[in-house]
TrEMBL record:
Keywords: Membrane, Transmembrane, Transmembrane helix
Organism listed in the record: Psychroflexus salarius
The protein, known as: 50S ribosomal protein L27
Keyword Transmembrane: yes
Transmembrane segments: 12-32, 44-66, 86-109, 121-141
Keyword Transmembrane: yes
Length: 145
């Protein structure tokens, strides 16, 4: 079961990264061009929200079934924090990704309340860009390729 969730989580991450990048640059470019907000832009933002939340659910299942998880009870939090691999997989990656998804959710929710297109795009651009930076900072690149 662990291997299936790991494969799904890894491949779904490519989709999350692609859609998040697309939504971020779409919002940045349309903010700079002062374009009007269209249904397509709403769908891109919504799809980013949905894909990222599905990734979170897959990641949470994976987190609790992964072999690293027993390190908390066997070695203790001090030993986990001293080991860079355990710290990445058990603390840094999950926490950073949850924060990124919270930023995506906040950005999506806030943009719906804005009335002008420029403010909608600016809100999405800021929150999604921050989320993209966090996601890129904590992807375990050595395990990804």
């Amino acid at each position: 079961m662990y291997e299936v969730f790991q494969i799904v989580h890894s491949y779904w991450a490519y989709l999350v990264l692609l859609v998040l990048t697309l939504a971020t640059f779409n919002a940045i470019i349309k903010t700079l061009n002062k374009s009007s907000y269209a249904a397509k832009d709403f769908r891109i933002s919504l799809f980013t929200l949905i894909v990222s939340h599905l990734q979170l659910l897959i990641g949470l299942v994976l987190y609790f079934v992964q072999p690293y998880f027993v390190a908390f009870s066997e070695q203790g939090m001090g030993a986990v924090m001293k080991d860079s691999t355990l710290r990445l997989y058990l603390v840094e990656h999950p926490l950073t990704m949850i924060i990124a998804i919270v930023l995506i959710t906040i950005g999506y929710s806030k943009h719906k309340k804005k009335l002008s297109s420029t403010k909608k795009f600016r809100t999405i651009a800021i929150f999604y860009a921050l989320a993209l930076i966090l996601v890129l900072s904590r992807i375990p690149w050595d395990a990804w390729f």
